[in-house]
Each structure stands twice: as structure tokens, then as C-alpha cells.
Specification:
By secondary structure, the protein is of the alpha+beta class. It has 2 helices and 14 strands. The strands form 2 sheets. A 12-stranded mixed beta sheet has the order 9-10-11-12-13-1-2-3-4-5-6-14. A two-stranded parallel sheet has the order 7-8. It is rod-shaped and about 170 Å long.
């Protein structure tokens, strides 16, 4: 019978379990390392996500700041534009109101308008007294040819006298005279304005458009403080293609003083100039007198 060395057996068992314990410890260490790596990875992912989120938020903030600056600049430009347009709107409205006041309330007016171009010179005198209006047109062409026309309008009749170097003729029209006035409501079929109104507008939207399109500055013309309205775009004085317009209205009265068209003729800029003169409460019955009809041939 074989004798077992108990001490040696115990030592062998101890070594066996010792080896297994070391292996288990190694596994535990490796497992712990893996867990640490996994945890570190998760933390890094979290940090990266947080950093991306912060970067995105910072980017959005920068965009918002940029947009705020852009909006502020746009708002400032818009306010400046509105202020400029509002100033011009007020000036045009003031001119229109003053001229309309003369047109609607003055019944004794004398005016003279002289237009000079490269082709002719024309003078138009107008005499208004109560309900009678007399126009005297005189035109001189550059070759010296002269024509003259007189028109007298009564409430129910209009007489026309025309003459040149060879003939004198007259015509009589039985018709109702147009109602004189500016911005008036009437049932009459026609209205007429006898005072040039550079700032006339038929509606508020049209006045706004005129205010945007018209350049206005202060100047002195013929010794009078005036507004210069350039590139006028309005109901009566519309800017034409290839024509630069400058109209001068007196600040105090709104009445027209001068009107200039700069046109291109044969490659050169030419000025067509019109000058205005107005007087009130000076027209007499003698000024409204008809020509001697015996000197004119009556035409039907």
C-alpha cells in the first residue's frame, strides 16, 4: 500500500489554487481595464458631444449677433430713407397747397410765360378777371416767322383770333367754359388750371412716388429763394426719356419761377428754358378787350 505524503499533497493543492487565483485576478484586472476604457470612451464621447453642442450654440449666437447688426443697419438706412422722403413729401405738399390756394381763390390774375428753345421763342400772357379768361399767344420761329393768337373765354362762349403775316381769321365757339380750379370737386365736364403747379399730384400714392423720384434742394433764382425740383415725375411735369428736368418754385408762394429741360439735339445738350411771372389784382376791363373784329375774317 502506497503511502501519500499529506504535506506534499497539500502543497500541490495550494499551488493549484494559487495558480487559479492569479489567473482570476488577471482576468479581473483585464476586465477592470476594459471597463475603465469603456468608461473613458463614454466620457470622451460625452465631452465631444458637449463640445459640438457648445460650438453649435456659439455659432448660432454669432449668427444671431450678425443678423442683429444687419437688421440694425437696415433699420437705420430705412429710417434715413423715410426721413428724406417725408421731407420731400412735406415740401411738395406745401407747394401744391399754396398754388391751389391761388388758383381757387384769386379771381384777378395776370401771368406771363416765356419759353425759349433752339427752334422758337413763345410768349403767353394770361388775363383773368372774374369769369373771363383771355390768352395772348405770340410765337417767333428762328427764321423770324411770327404768329399771334388771342383766345377769350366767357362762361358760355369762346372766341379765337389767329393771325400771321398773311391772314387774320376768327372763330366763335358756343360752349360752356371749363371750371377753373385745382383739386376741386365739380359736376362740370371739364376743369382748367391757369397757374403752373410743379408739385401737383392727383392722389397720396402719386405724391409718395413723386417724393421718392424727385430730388429737392434750395437755390436762388432771379433773386428769389426757391426749391429746385429735378427729375420731376408727376401728373403735369413728367420726366421724359433722354430729358433732364429742373423746375424752380418760389418757397414763399409756391409759384413757378423757372422751368428747364435739357435735351439732346444732334449729339449736343440744349436747354429749353421757360420763365414765369405772376401778378394779382391788376387786371382791368381794358386788358380783356376784344380785337377789332372788322380786321378778321369770320370762319364757321
Amino acid at each position: 500500500m502506497q503511502t501519500i505524503d499529506l504535506r506534499a499533497y497539500m502543497l500541490m493543492i495550494a499551488k493549484l489554487y494559487k495558480g487559479k487565483g492569479e489567473k482570476n485576478m488577471e482576468k479581473d484586472v483585464e476586465k477592470t481595464k476594459k471597463n475603465d476604457l469603456t468608461e473613458n470612451g463614454k466620457n470622451k464621447n460625452k465631452e465631444m458631444k458637449a463640445e459640438k453642442k457648445n460650438n453649435k450654440e456659439n455659432k448660432e449666437k454669432r449668427k444671431m449677433k450678425l443678423w442683429k447688426k444687419i437688421l440694425i443697419v437696415i433699420a437705420v438706412i430705412l429710417l434715413i430713407f423715410i426721413a428724406i422722403v417725408l421731407r420731400k413729401f412735406i415740401i411738395l405738399n406745401d407747394i401744391d397747397n399754396k398754388v391751389s390756394e391761388y388758383e381757387n381763390n384769386q379771381n384777378n390774375i395776370y401771368s406771363k410765360v416765356v419759353s425759349t428753345t433752339s427752334e422758337y421763342t413763345m410768349q403767353v400772357e394770361c388775363y383773368i378777371k372774374d369769369d373771363v379768361i383771355k390768352y395772348v399767344f405770340e410765337k417767333t420761329d428762328k427764321d423770324g416767322t411770327k404768329t399771334r393768337l388771342i383766345q377769350i373765354t366767357y362762361p358760355h362762349e369762346r372766341k379765337l383770333y389767329a393771325e400771321d403775316s398773311n391772314t387774320k381769321v376768327m372763330r366763335v365757339y358756343k360752349e360752356e367754359a371749363p371750371v377753373r380750379g385745382s383739386h376741386i370737386e365739380t359736376e362740370a365736364p371739364a376743369t382748367i388750371s391757369t397757374i403752373a403747379n410743379f408739385a401737383y399730384s392727383m392722389s397720396i400714392p402719386e405724391r409718395i412716388i413723386n417724393s421718392i423720384c424727385t430730388s429737392i434742394k434750395s437755390v436762388e433764382v432771379n433773386g428769389k429763394e426757391c426749391y429746385e425740383l429735378s427729375n420731376v415725375f408727376g401728373s403735369n411735369y413728367m420726366e421724359l426719356k433722354d430729358v433732364k428736368i429742373m423746375a424752380y418754385a418760389e418757397k414763399e408762394t409756391g409759384l413757378p419761377v423757372k422751368y428747364i429741360e435739357i435735351v439732346n439735339e444732334n449729339g449736343q445738350e440744349v436747354e429749353n428754358v421757360t420763365e414765369y411771372e405772376y401778378k394779382f389784382n391788376c387786371v382791368t376791363d381794358e386788358d380783356l378787350a376784344e380785337p377789332d373784329e372788322s380786321q378778321y375774317e369770320l370762319q364757321e
